[in-house]
Amino acid sequence: MSATFVGMPPFPEAARAALGDTQLRQNLAHATRTIRDKRAAVVAEVDDWEELRLAGAQIKDRTLGRLDHYLLQLEESLQSRGVSVHWAGDAEQACAIVAKIAKDHGVDEVVKVKSMTTQEIGLNEALEAVGIAAWETDLAELIVQLGDDLPSHILVPAIHRNRAEIRQIFLRSMAAVGRPAPGDLTDEPAALAAAARAHLREKFLRAKVAVSGANFAVADSGTLVIVESEGNGRMCLTLPEVLVSVVGIEKLVPTWSDLDVFLRLLPRSSTGERMNPYTSTWSGVTPGDGPQEMHVVLLDNGRTNVLANDVGRQALRCIRCSACLNVCPVYERVGGHAYGSVYPGPIGAIITPMLRGVGKDAATDALPYASSLCGACVDVCPVRIDIPEILVQLRAEVVDAHRGQVPKGKDLAMKGAAWAFAKSGRLALAERAAGLSGLLTGVVGRRRLPGGRPAIGRLPWPASLWTDARDLPSPPRQSFRVWWKATDGGRVPQTPPTRENPQTSPTRKTQS
Amino acid sequence: MITCLNDAMFPETGQAVVRLLKRLGVDVEFPVAQTCCAQPMVNTGYLDEAVPIVANFVDAFAGYDAIVTPSGSCAGSARNQHALVARRSGDPALAAAVAATAPKVHELSEFLVDVLGVEDVGAYFPHKVTYHPTCHSLRMLGVGDRPLRLLQNVRGLHLIDLPGAEECCGFGGTFAVKNPDTSVAMGGDKARNVRNTGAEVLVAGDNSCLMHIGGVLSRQRAGVRVMHLAEILASTEDVQ
């Protein structure tokens, strides 16, 4: 995969381009609605869903509160079962560790289980740079890789593609990297899956080294867990001789019984299934069965920064289910690429700025603003992450990071408004000025809103940000506070305003 | 609490609230020192700038039994975000004042149904209406079906279900101008759902969202007007 998120434009600009892609809009609207409805149906079946969510949040919080303890326990459990444990502070270290293991075994290719963490660290690109091909084996990741594309969803990375596009990608790209797609390939899902299966099978059978992430790591038993739908993960975890798993330090759960809660929360939240088709667990090396050499790379890469953020810490509860993406009205319309981040959607808008740090580049600083704060994500999050609360916190961090610099127009606008809002006399003055401008537009303009109120049409920038696509009511000549004074709160009658034209009633006498 | 937007742009909504509450026997005051709840600053990240506004808010509303506002969003801001601003100020007196004021803030439909205990406010509005539950009233406050129960008791009113009602309209405060393209894309889908109901009036509990959806509908020449819930509830056979 040579495509990259680096250097992409900030969200508002990237979103504009995405919104104009009609095929993308169709694909996303259809796919997100389908998964959303499936999720809602299977969640409604569970009587104690809210208790499960609470339990999930509490287990994660308890674990994160003693992360140092559980990490050392996990290391000890893994080592006692014959697993080599590596610690990586950042992406570069993690990639170097994986590359060295692969080099030590003299291979020029590895097979991969779908893994957000390895995407986060850019592992495929790092391996490619040292001459090792990393083959994605998840169907959607394969589509993305063959299409020289970027994933746009955590769970369904090729959600932006429909089956006609997938057929084209298979026909065009499979032959260059392995078994070609059959010449008579149709866009039937079964035919596409069969082509992928045949293409991948030879890679599974040939690969000596596999790379995975992990959905969970159980501290007391030293068990790693992968939850998947296609069985490609099971192939990667059992056929190769060497297995390297890159695991974010927030993936820990203390015990097997804690794991139970998440194995019930995750499938219903992510794919909308009662149970996922394949759940693989492994606790170290078993002689004569499966990989005989196992490595675990424990990755920080900014996670301890998130842990240090009082409000943002709860984001580390995330189990990467994608329910927040599927329900997000912004994500549904712009898709994942516009976020310019491996983690898109609402969770990406909080995780990415915290992992990268704010105040450094415009693209990262735009992410906390890529939300209308509608709160739909909070309702569906299986571990109850209050995403809007974190978005607001991160917006404050973005603003604070730029304090002391030359203020921009938006800063001045906000400071000016805040100045007017601090005293009612200032606000009244501003309203009077607006009322006069309303009078002007009422006289000059002929536009009327449905119902008859005078309206403002197109205005130059920056008002165009509103008026390019939306009419705006003309400010009324009489604000509420002026009406209140003029009529003593409605006790003194005045010419009754009509609903259509409340601003036309003559009440100039109280203006000060 | 009339809210800054209603004060400056939609005085008819504030007047309707006054008329409605007086009709129901409530002693209504408008503390003229009030300005804004500071939500635009808080939700855009300008916490320092929000501090004097919240200080003004708690001063203006000190001593009242109930603070009623025709906005789910501003009620949510006062109830859920003022504590955050007080923490930022580091002023324990402001934190104490916020803790005293915040629980007294009620969105209009909450106040009518929960405090006054009325669902039939004696209103008359003979029109086809569809209702959009705004995100903050729905998810931050949890007003539930209170507005719908109030509307169902309005004589002459024909209430039509809005498809995809609980999806955000795309206003989102400064989101509407920071991400105008996405905001309008969301607003366009909302407007389409509104048009498909065949209703002549779209009603909601927040004029901010209505200004956005209404602006899209108006630009489309859709022939659908937007009205605040308070204005419908204030309408009678005599006063409309």
In a nutshell, what does this entry contain?
The complex is a heterodimer of chains A (512) and B (240). Chain A has 512 residues and is of the alpha/beta class.
Sequence-ordered SSE layout with sheet pairings:
The complex is a heterodimer of chains A (512) and B (240).
Chain A: H1 11-19, H2 22-44, H3 49-65, H4 67-80, E1 83-88, H5 91-104, E2 109-112, H6 116-120, H7 123-129, E3 133-136, H8 139-146, H9 163-177, H10 189-206, E4 209-212, E5 216-218, E6 223-228, H11 232-238, E7 242-248, E8 252-253, H12 256-270, E9 278-282, E10 293-299, H13 303-307, H14 323-327, H15 329-334, H16 345-356, H17 362-366, H18 376-380, H19 387-401, H20 409-421, H21 424-444, E11 455-456, H22 464-467, E12 472-473, H23 480-487
Parallel strand pairs in A: 1-10, 2-3, 2-4, 4-7, 5-8, 7-10
Antiparallel strand pairs in A: 5-6, 6-9, 11-12
Helix pairs in contact in A: 3-12, 9-10, 16-19
Chain B: H1 4-9, H2 11-23, H3 39-42, H4 47-60, E1 67-69, H5 72-89, H6 92-101, E2 105-107, H7 108-115, E3 128-131, H8 135-141, H9 146-152, E4 158-160, H10 175-178, H11 180-197, E5 201-204, H12 207-219, E6 225-228, H13 229-234
Parallel strand pairs in B: 1-2, 3-4, 3-5, 5-6
Helix pairs in contact in B: 4-5, 4-6, 5-6, 5-8, 11-12
Question: Which features would summarize this protein structure in a list?
Answer:
heterodimer, A: 512 residues, alpha/beta, Rossmann fold, six-stranded parallel β-sheet, four-stranded mixed β-sheet, 10% strand, elongated, B: 240 residues, 2 domains, two-stranded parallel ribbon, 6 strands
